[in-house]
Amino acid sequence: MTKLSLSCLKGDTIKAIVLVCVAVGVVAVSYGSLAMSWGFPLWVPLALSTLVLGGASEFMFLGIIVSGGNPFAAAAAGLLVNARHIPFGIAVRELVGTRAIGLLGCHIMNDESVVFGLSQPTPEQRKAAYWLCGCGIAILWPVGVLLGSGVGKLLPAPETIGLDAVFPAILLALVVPALKKRTTLIRALSGAAISLASVPFTPAGVPVLLSLLGIFARKK
After folding, report:
1. Of 61, 56, 55, 54, which Cα lies nearest the Cα of 76?
2. Cys bridge to 130: 56, 117, 120, 219, which one at CB 3.0-4.6 A?
């Protein structure tokens, strides 16, 4: 990987990345607290947050198990949710690096790092934003889980205090500027419509994947 320098990033971009990473850490606190309230030992959410590093799939994995599901089915559901990383990987293949460093670059690939990486104007800025966001989340996600496990049952359910809404709101704020392009807007709305229509008929996680069909919608 070529030399990485954060000095090429604008101050507003760095500030936005920091805020998103902090928001991820806040969600991780609720995740750690929820895992403890469900009766899981600390090592389970901590191992998931470190090795899997995929928030939605981790929540789904624990949720399926606590509801009586088979661990293998829970793992399969998590893999299904994370299948979106396949097109992500293609999109950021020039940002993750090569050889040994490329393994780390793939590990820190997530929704936020991909959004920030692809939204920058130059190759140098794209790589810097991708790595700054990815590494920030890779650190704050397990740290948040540890903090959440510490307060444990002292926190109410995440939905009670609105922590579950923080993450989607941040992502929506990042995506909105891209919707100024008519073609992008049409494809986004098409994907959203497909996803919503499939919710009553498909397992959790599948509607997100089906929303990718929206990319085939064309501007008329």
Report:
1. 61
2. 117
**pLDDT tens digits, 16-34:** 999 999 989 988 888 888 8
Question: Which of these, 111, 108, 115, lies nearest to 131 by C-alpha position?
Answer: 108
- How far apart CA 158 and CA 156 sit, in angstroms, is 6
CB 132 within 8 A of CB 9: yes
Could you identify the residue written with the tokens 């049952």? Answer: 153
Burial level of 107, CB count in 10 A (0-12/13-18/19+)?
middle
CB 220 within 8 A of CB 193: no
Comparing 152 with 66, which gets the higher pLDDT? 66
| Residue range 98-135, pLDDT digits in tens | 888 899 999 999 989 998 998 898 989 999 999 999 99
Q: How far is it, in rounded angstroms, from Cα 150 to Cα 108?
A: 25
Tokens of 18: 């920091």
Number of residues that make up the chain: 220
The answer to whether 179 touches 187, Cβ cutoff 8 Å, is no
What's this model's pTM, rounded to 2 decimal places? 0.70
